[in-house]
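Retro notes
What went well: the complex prediction finally ran end to end.
Inputs used:
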Amino acid sequence: MVSGFYRDITKVFLVISLIFISSSLFSKVEKYGEVSFENRAFLEKGLFGQDKNHSSFTLSPEFYFESEDQKTSFTFKPKIRRDSLDDERNLFDIQDLSLIKVKNSYEIRIGIRRDFWGVTETVHRVDIINQTDQVESFDGEDKLGQPMINLSLERDWGVLDIYALLGFRERTFAGEKGRLRAPFLIDTDSAMYESGAENLRTDFAFRWSQSYRDLELALSHFSGTSREPEFINKSISLKIPYYGIIEQTGLEALYIVGGLALKLEAISRSGQGDRFSAATAGFEYTQVGILSSRLDLGWIMEFNYDDRYEESPLALGTRLTFNDMYDSQILSGLMRNEETGETNVFVEASRRVRNCCRLSFESIYFNGGDNSNSIQKMFEYLKQDDFVRFEFIYYLGN
Amino acid sequence: MKKLNKTFLFTLFFLFLNLASTDEFDQGLEIALKADNSFSGYGDSKTNLKMLLKDRKGLITERVMEMILLEVPEDGDKSLIVFDSPRDVRGVAVLSHAHKTGSDEQWLYLPALKRVKRVASKNRTGPFLGSEFSLEDLSFQEVEKYSYEYLRDEDLEGQECHVIKRIPLDPYSGYTQQIVWISKSNSLIHQIHHFDRKSFHVKTQTFSGYKKYLNKFWRPDEIHMINHQTNKTTTLFFQDMTFNTGLSDKDFTQNSLKRSK
């Protein structure tokens, strides 16, 4: 593990020195990124006896180069994470290592990149370009870099992005000692693929999007290895992730009515058992200057639907923005599952410290509800995983 | 006959009333058009913005951003603002397409998630980056977005000014009315009193360091905003202003928003 860490560091320095050699080609060079320290304290020991406390350290510097005419740019952003408890939470990832060239009628982006699709806030159904770095955070919004060639055409009829996705990244899963893990172990070393090329298959995707004054619309299709695995039993307590080949069509719509944003994301996927559909729909509304103060209060409500499950959980969220010098805010939310009686609640408070840093506290509480219910619970295995998280981020740069 | 006479008199009376007020509205509009004209004709521009925020205790914090603008003669102008500091919002960007009629379009770029998010332009009335400016204060104030009324002529710190009242037509504006001081000599806005939704005089905005560029249009160096409720102030400095830099519609799209650094 230690030698692996040094290997990562060596790789990073190699790339950095390469960049500096080639940096004479670019007129603008910027260095930034972040260093963060995080501690998660759980209220109880894990279901499998995992420790009550763990810390992690993350380093992700970013280097950005731009040509004089701003038509060519290059980005390099590695991410290194070390965890005190769970080896599976150690990470070396290249989040970005890409070149962008802007031409008159198109833009081409080559290399390792991240790209987001979607409009909703709580569940991201359509987003599929990147693999999720699931162990990073509970919200699943952290992604792994994806090698790709992306051609983007921007015309009167909208933006058309065409992607060739070169190779596949496996999802990260908590290890044996890790918290917030499934009731079985996942053997990520023997992942299986439907594709004969395994994780080297080239996948394809496209997305068309257009803005019509108050309406934003997007249609997309992905053809390739699913980012979401199924699991094959190796033994009672050990499972192997199996990544099938899927066809997924997605729809995104966002409509602005006054201060209200109405949102819809829907997908239809085939390739993993029967074809299924799933959707998330809801709204976002911000009350500006509540009670004649500087404070804004944002509301989010989203409904979920998925063919495969009986449950249709409801997500509610609020964001209280203080609009002060420190950008203080409190996010809170709950996910309620009427069928299983489960409720997850989270609160996250954060503020800027000086000009350089940010401090945040987060707390998640899993309430299993009524145990007599016979329906399979979504978060049954997390019932002892209520936690309080503290994070301090130092932003690099000048 | 008697009845007809009465109607006639009433009509005449209202016509006269109407004429009088139309005159004040026309005069107000005329002054506003002149003020708009002294700002127009810049084509496109690039500017570095620095904001100094000062709280009640005199504590000062700084915000730095880059702004590019494109003049769109038939419709509202386009803008792209990229934040540089504080560091936690570095790379966050706001793209706006203003429209002369109807609400503006606005998109936010969140670099951590690589996400472009369309936002309701109604949410522009709150403090911008914790400052005393709202996004509404910083966006284009197209003539068509207000109704006007001429109030009086007045001396403002040695400047002969027209004083007009403008009422935002946008129901989602943060203000019920604004009193604007415009210099008689070169039609430049020198001061604005902002009245909030409860018609309370909440903020005063002053403009200083006007310079004429390319022999055509004027820009201030500095805009100062004081909040009378909190006694906090923000001063906005325009630095390294350049015009006709060759920007086009292509620099104000969602793809360019994603590229902004």
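What we learned: Residues 148 and 190 of chain B are 17 Å apart (CA to CA).
What to try next: split runs per interface for comparison.
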